[in-house]
Amino acid sequence: VKTWSPGQCRRANASRRACLIARFNFIYAKERLDAEILLKKFICDIEMVQRTIYFAALESFRAAKKAFWKIKIGVKETLAIGHCAGPASLEIAALNYIACHKDLYDVCCSVQEVVCAMNVNPKLPCPENVDFNVMNCFIRELCCLAFSMQTLCPPLDVAYGIDGEVFNRSMYYRSCDSDFTAPFVAYHVWPALMENGTVLVKGEVVTRK
């Protein structure tokens, strides 16, 4: 395993971090809207479409993080055989190894896990009315992004919102069809991107009285 200096690790981490944040913004600005167009063929209610995409984003991060955790355990056990520089160094070595060997991640399993979770969610449309597999490409992109974000130190994650929570202007933008005087979130359109509890990229919500 290649040994990296602390400076190299910081530069590589910063470079990956910037690229992943940019990718997150692109998915929000472009691919999310493409997913909306696909879902509108099955679902007439725009609120339900946006709720579905939001849930897909949350589930994609959850599935990718679970897969990453399992892979990291195996990688650390393998690297520990010839590693003698301490647990902190082993953790960094494992993150760098996974970042360079993304083929360890079977993203298809995560995609199917997300689709299954959407099929059983009572708040989403009945599977008989819509085939969530039409979102496979969108979900795959989110899973790959979320998995790569776990190789950062510290990792990036999305905020999990709750309908009816008080609107937080430091975490969310209001959607254009919101009631701008309403203090509560009716539903979430897109999650905020977080790093150690700090908001890096604001999410989007709809507020209504």
TrEMBL record:
Residues 16-207 form the Mitochondria-eating protein C-terminal domain. GO terms for biological process: mitochondrial protein catabolic process; mitophagy by internal vacuole formation. Keywords: Coiled coil, Cytoplasm, Lipid-binding, Membrane, Mitochondrion, Mitochondrion outer membrane. Belongs to the MIEAP family. GO terms for cellular component: mitochondrial matrix; mitochondrial outer membrane. This is Mitochondria-eating protein. InterPro entries: MIEAP, MIEAP_C. The gene is Spata18. PANTHER family: MITOCHONDRIA-EATING PROTEIN, MITOCHONDRIA-EATING PROTEIN-RELATED. GO terms for molecular function: lipid binding. It is found in: Cytoplasm; Mitochondrion matrix; Mitochondrion outer membrane. The keyword Flavoprotein does not apply.
